[in-house]
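sorry for the late reply, my laptop died twice this morning and i had to redo everyting from scratch. anyway the thing you sent over, i finally got around to it. pasting the sequence first so we're on the same page, its 131 residues, then the predicted structure underneath. double check i copied it right bc i was rushing
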Amino acid sequence: MKGGPRRLATFVAVGCAAAAVHLAVVVFLVGRHGQLPLVANVVGWMVAFCVSFTGHWLLTFRARSAPPARAARRFLAVSMAGFAANELAYAAVLRWSGLRYDLVLAGVLVGVAVMTYLLGSRWAFLGKPLS
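ok and here's the structure:
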């Protein structure tokens, strides 16, 4: 696998790891500590961001040669936008669907992953600033 297909496969692997961490943190905080799902989701996102950035920096977008500080700032912006979409969708579906919080979160995490990949590959981890 070269270039795009390999990068996409690595993105999916890192993203799955980060999503699993996110979901595990939320389930732990809600199930063991009685935290509200939307509050636990914030903590889950913060922990998963660390997993996601590290994995994408070291594995997915390494060849892009972006300076680490710039990549971190940009990826944080991408991740925050993704989390905002995540939290809004999560709150709406939780409120109106009556579905289990963990199943709703799993679906929302998959939906936001596409946006994160596109913005990460085309902006956050680029080695050269856009003109």
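The mean pLDDT is 87.
thats about all i looked at so far, will dig more tmrw
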